[in-house]
Amino acid sequence: MHKPVAIGPFTRIGAQTDILGECPLWSEREQALWWIDIRRPAIMRYDHSAGRIDEWKVSDLVGAIALCADGRLLVAAGDEIFLFDSARDRREAVARLPARIDGHRFNDGRCDPQGRFWIGTMHNITRAPEGVLYRLEEDGALTPVLSGVCIPNSLCWSPDGATMYFADSLEYGIDAFAFDTARGEIGERRAFARTRTPAFPDGSAVDAEGCVWNAEFNGGRIVRYAPDGRILQTVETPTSRPTCCAFGGADLDILFVTTTSQHMSEAEKAADPMAGALLACTVGVRGLPESLYAAAPRGNARENTI
């Protein structure tokens, strides 16, 4: 039986203010947190032991990143997916969207437990139901899995990999799919959780007990759901628009939360000073290690700014 856990107060990490912070990922190998600022656009890294934050500017809107088994990052930006070696500032092309559509961008991506990368797209301006959820294949092809999506979010998997969670945020709910771990295919879809407007589900993470932690954009809180969809507890955040959460730290018991300051007036920012901050708090449960993308060299690396 799942019970509420003890949660400490939030603290701010660093002094930077993200425009649209997203996609936090904890690297056990580096003991560091990676995340992105979609709108800056930039890739960010927080060295936990040194307390240092590094930044790499990206030439196009960056929608998602994934950790790789060889220490690089998989980056979805513009209409391209590429491997990025931050130490040498080198990138290696992996895949490209079948067609670049004006106004569309990547949003929310993650590796499943077997290391396959899943990535969604959306209309950046209208939020019309034109987005697609893709699965990246070994040969670099992007296979469409779901279409008619407004804002893809909440991609994560149960500890046994048998359930995939996904949200189209403008449907104000998270769905759960039966997941074939061997084939990487989704099956039966069911409603998992629903939110109340104006709050909608943004990014999620799963803990070691199989509970889903979801950042409620416009809700000012993180909600912890039991595997059957019951709300176990809510955690108020010191800003109204958290965007995503991830477990990290040496014991995977720190909850990191990205937030946004996008489209806020100076008066609104003054009233909500934590908007755009990277936040962290201790929680009484461990998270799951982040699944890694099994990157294979493709022989077309190039050296340039990303």
Give me a quick take on this structure:
With 306 residues, the chain is mainly beta.
Structural features, described:
- The chain has one helix and 25 strands.
- It is mainly β.
- The strands form six sheets. It has a five-stranded antiparallel sheet, with no helix packed on it.
- Strand 18 and strand 19 form a beta hairpin.
- The protein starts with 10 loop residues before the first strand and ends with a strand.
What is Rg? Answer: 18 Å
Strand order of the largest sheet: 6-7-8-9-25
Structural class: mainly beta
> In total, how many beta strands?
25
Categorize the overall geometry.
globular
Q: Could you tell me the strand content as a percent range?
A: over 45%
Quick one: CATH class? Mainly Beta
Distance between the termini: 47 Å
CATH superfamily descriptor: TolB, C-terminal domain
Number of helices: 1
- Describe the largest sheet: 5 strands, antiparallel
What CATH architecture label applies?
A: 6 Propeller
Indicate how many domains the architecture comprises.
1
CATH-assigned fold name: Neuraminidase
The low-confidence runs, each spanning 5 or more residues with pLDDT under 50, are none
Question: Into which percent range does the helicity of residues fall?
Answer: under 10%
Order of helices and strands: EEEEEEEEEEEEEEEEEEEEEEEHEE
Mean pLDDT: 94
Record keyword descriptors for this entry.
mainly beta; 306 residues; Neuraminidase; five-stranded antiparallel sheet; 2% helix
Question: Would you spell out the secondary-structure blueprint of this structure?
Answer:
Layout: E1 11-13, E2 21-27, E3 32-37, E4 42-47, E5 52-57, E6 62-67, E7 73-77, E8 80-85, E9 90-96, E10 104-111, E11 117-123, E12 131-136, E13 142-149, E14 152-157, E15 163-168, E16 173-180, E17 185-194, E18 200-206, E19 212-217, E20 221-225, E21 231-236, E22 242-248, E23 254-259, H1 266-271, E24 278-282, E25 301-303
Antiparallel strand pairs: 1-24, 2-3, 3-4, 4-5, 6-7, 7-8, 8-9, 9-25, 10-11, 11-12, 12-13, 14-15, 15-16, 16-17, 18-19, 19-20, 20-21, 22-23, 23-24
